[in-house]
Design goal:
The structure is a single chain. By secondary structure, this protein is mainly α. The protein has 13 helices and 3 strands; from the N terminus they run αααβααββαααααααα. A hairpin with a 4-residue loop joins β2 and β3 (about 90). α3 packs across α5, α7 packs antiparallel against α10 and α9 (about 135-145) crosses α10 (about 150-165).
């Protein structure tokens, strides 16, 4: 695009133009949070925290300045990850910088999600409650200002973004604000209402491994069982009769140690003359 000057308003306002045609009166993106984060990452990769010309940004993203590029850029602006910097350039916002540079960007994702006017309205209306069915949610979006012809796209982008930001960690049928320091994106986050306590589970698991309390390990996690399994030869390798019998005797000893033997008939034992077909 030699000699071409790209105006920021032309490159970033595609979504606004579509909104005017469809007569939407509330801000929302046509892409999800991950797509918007890709734009922020491309700005950072190309220009760091400085100014990034739009033609350079498009090249960094492997695109040309087109309708698809403009809509994705508009999504990044709607999530407030990038901001205008001159007539035909953008730069990372403070929120965008946190998204792309923080090891734990959970708090930034929460803030970005709630920066979208439509999403903030829905969250305020339904936080901690069950969301309405799909079509009812689309009608709610139309009531809030989304053009009727765009409610399906708006809902789909909303649901993906909510999952990516961690708002569906308590279940995909309700919005619950995740803890700022919890991992986002649909994982087992430790959330405000206590439905999931990942930190406690990790602490309990560490205590069990150290023998320092908590619930006893299950059979498959018991160190003796794990040690027994480690001694198994690789599948397909030779294993003579004596070796098999010795392994089974060791297994029987371990089972006697960690399991209670019921006083019923039919208890089994391993004999040295066990058949080879084990």
């Amino acid at each position: 695009m030699t000699g071409e000057t790209v105006q920021f308003e032309q490159a970033a306002a595609s979504s606004d133009e579509a909104t005017k045609r469809e007569q939407s009166t509330i801000g929302f993106p046509y892409h999800d949070l991950d797509a918007a984060s890709e734009v922020a990452q491309a700005v950072y990769n190309r220009s760091g925290l400085g100014t990034c010309e739009l033609d350079e940004l498009a090249a960094e993203m492997g695109q040309v300045i087109s309708g698809a590029f403009r809509v994705k850029l508009a999504a990044a602006r709607t999530f407030e990850l990038v901001e205008k910097d001159g007539r035909s350039a953008v730069k990372l916002s403070e929120l965008g910088r946190r998204i792309v540079t923080d090891d734990h960007a959970g708090a930034a994702k929460i803030e970005a999600f709630l920066s979208v006017p439509l999403y903030a309205k829905i969250f305020d209306a339904y936080k901690g409650q069950k969301l309405p069915p799909m079509k009812a949610l689309e009608r709610e979006m139309a009531t809030l200002g989304v053009a009727v012809k765009q409610t399906d796209k708006a809902r789909q982008a909303f649901e993906r973004a909510a999952k990516q930001a961690g708002f569906f960690d308590a279940g995909s049928d309700r919005l619950v604000r995740p803890r700022a320091d919890a991992p986002s994106g649909g994982g087992k986050a430790d959330i405000d209402n206590g439905d999931v306590r990942a930190d406690k589970l990790k602490d309990d698991d560490a205590a069990r491994r150290k023998g320092g309390g908590g619930e006893p390990p299950s059979g498959k996690d018991h160190p003796l069982i794990n040690g027994l399994l480690v001694t198994l030869p690789d599948p397909g390798t030779a294993w003579d009769k004596n070796g098999r019998a010795a392994w089974l005797k060791m297994a029987e000893s371990i089972f006697d140690m960690i399991y209670k033997v019921p006083s019923t008939k039919g208890n089994w034992q391993i004999d040295d003359d066990e058949d080879d077909d084990i």
